[in-house]
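Here we describe the complex-level prediction in full. Unlike the single-chain runs in Section 2.1, the two entities below were treated as one system.
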Amino acid sequence: GAVVSQHPSRVICKSGTSVKIECRSLDFQATTMFWYRQFPKQSLMLMATSNEGSKATYEQGVEKDKFLINHASLTLSTLTVTSAHPEDSSFYICSARPSLAGGPGTQYFGPGTRLTVL
Amino acid sequence: GEDVEQSLFLSVREGDSSVINCTYTDSSSTYLYWYKQEPGAGLQLLTYIFSNMDMKQDQRLTVLLNKKDKHLSLRIADTQTGDSAIYFCAEPSSGGYQKVTFGTGTKLQVIP
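The structure predicted for the assembly as a whole is:
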């Protein structure tokens, strides 16, 4: 089956530093990838839609200069949290939609990255 | 915009049936989804139902759709401890790119 990996799975950083999270589709090409943030009470919030070779589309209220997204290839999207602060601590999940999409809702999710900012 | 609501928590005994409920707002959704998230992991698409269907059964899973009330449910028969997870219902959202709006999630706890 289709596999999406995220790296790192867990990261702890100091306030003010930047953190890069990678999302890779391992055995398929993904023109579109999505970045989500999951809050402690479970809700999953879409942050942005990442499209290969073009600028990401951010959801309302998400700071594009704070959360930099690069989708440089059909198998890799990166999310960089710049100048991280404790309120950025969260579980970040990516998903990838295959270029040759399957049925409805075909998105494959990565295992998530737990970010803790001290 | 789309709004998808679920109860936060459900506890059942192993072997019983679980019913997870969801209400949604966008009546134009052509299909609705159920996702499962195991502890510390990403989401996995469990099943989906087209809006022209009232019911879909897939092994232990039964999805019921009431379009009039905009109500979706997921029934898990013979619930096992391995079914313990967070379950999200979801519907397509506007804005293209096949985006999906997720519900608040229901944490299912299965008691042995």
